[in-house]
Amino acid sequence: MIIVNTDFVSGHRIVESLGLVRGSTIRAKHIGKDIMAGLRTLVGGEIKEYTEMIMESRNESVNRMQAQAEKLGANAVINVRFVTSQVMTGAAELLAYGTAVKLAPEG
């Protein structure tokens, strides 16, 4: 499966557009990680607990989007975008979305 954030894939042409596909997850860290993150804001630097959470969320969202595209018979997802939003204190949704397409090699 080819997944890109552009509206084309070099060396390929779009044979069929299958529509919007998306995947999302809502994640929250447990209280211990929140306390550690809060303490880290006092001294500065990367908040690794949240970096890890966002990376896990991004991967899960892309996997779910890809599964939806595969069900449609796609071999690529183009124009992939990410959106995040807070759904409650300490919990955030990460949404990945794009257009499922069937590609064929040019020529």
CATH topology: Translation Initiation Factor IF3
Strand order, sheet with most strands: 1-3-4-2
Low-confidence stretches: none
Number of domains: 1
End-to-end CA span: 20 Å
Examine the secondary-structure arrangement and name the CATH architecture: 2-Layer Sandwich
Q: What's the CATH class label?
A: Alpha Beta
Question: Helical element count?
Answer: 2
Query: In terms of structural class, how would the helical and strand content be classed?
Result: alpha+beta
| CATH homology superfamily | Hypothetical protein apc22750. Chain B
Radius of gyration: 17 Å
Give a verbal description of the structure.
The protein is an alpha+beta fold. It has a single domain, classed as Hypothetical protein apc22750. Chain B (Translation Initiation Factor IF3, 2-Layer Sandwich). The chain is built from two helices and four strands, in the order E-E-H-H-E-E. The protein has helices spanning 31-43, 48-71; strands at residues 2-3, 12-28, 76-88, 91-105. Strand 3 and strand 4 form a beta hairpin. The relative contact order is 0.33. The model has no long low-confidence stretch (mean pLDDT 89).
